[in-house]
Amino acid sequence: MDQVYRKFLEHGHEQVTRLATASDVLDIEAEPFWPPARYRCIFHVPYLRLTNSGVVERDPGPVLALLHIPADYLHPADKYLYLRIASVYNPGMVHPNISPAGNVCLGAQLKAGTPVHALLHQLADIVSYRNCGLHEANSFNPVACRLLRQHGELRRQLQSAPLIRRNRKLQIQVEEI
């Protein structure tokens, strides 16, 4: 294994561990090999799915995803790297960035070497519908755009907690009377 890639994965694993510890909506399982290049991600968020009968409905979740950092991640020859990194395993999930087969488009602006924790943030924004453009021309799944426009009320019901819990420091001051 290339030493730069190895160090990238080792550092990425530290970041992933910190992110998972700070999150109430994300559980992460690394592959058993060191350093891990694959992560099974469980996002405890609701999502929209298309049933076999053609109805779009709210599913309470979770969303199951795989994040894979390929060996050529730091120096890809493939200009479609952003399509090879993430996938979801929720059949029928309706999202403009997710194909019917479960492939996730992280966006053409994704650069090689983007830190692993940044990839997880981007994936979280997609599966929680915070990153959800409805323009069919810019969509990986144009059918999902149409369905989401038709069912806007369902999309608005998809409230989920932020990826990282907010630290709230409560200070109480007691005065004697």
Strand order of the largest sheet: 1-2-5-6-7
Profile the largest sheet: 5 strands, antiparallel
Number of helices: 4
Let me know the average pLDDT: 89
Q: Termini distance? A: 69 Å
Tally the beta strands.
7
Structural class: alpha+beta
Low confidence ranges: none
Radius of gyration: 18 Å
* Shape, principal axes of CA atoms: flat
* Secondary-structure element string: HEEEEEEEHHH
User: What is the CATH topology classification name?
Assistant: Ubiquitin Conjugating Enzyme
Please report the first level of CATH classification, the CATH class.
Answer: Alpha Beta
Strand content: 15-25%
Number of spatially distinct domains: 1
CATH homologous superfamily designation: Ubiquitin Conjugating Enzyme
| CATH architecture identity | Roll
Query: Roughly how much helix do the residues carry, as a percent range?
Result: 25-40%
Characterization of this structure:
The radius of gyration is 18 Å and the shape is flat. The chain has 177 residues and is α+β, with helices and mostly antiparallel strands. The strands form two sheets. A five-stranded antiparallel sheet has the order 1-2-5-6-7, covered by helices on one side. It contains four helices and seven strands, in the order αβββββββααα. Strand 1 and strand 2 (38-43) form a beta hairpin. The N and C termini lie far apart (69 Å). It has one domain (3-156): Ubiquitin Conjugating Enzyme (Roll), CATH 3.10.110.10. Helices cover 25% and strands 17% of the residues.
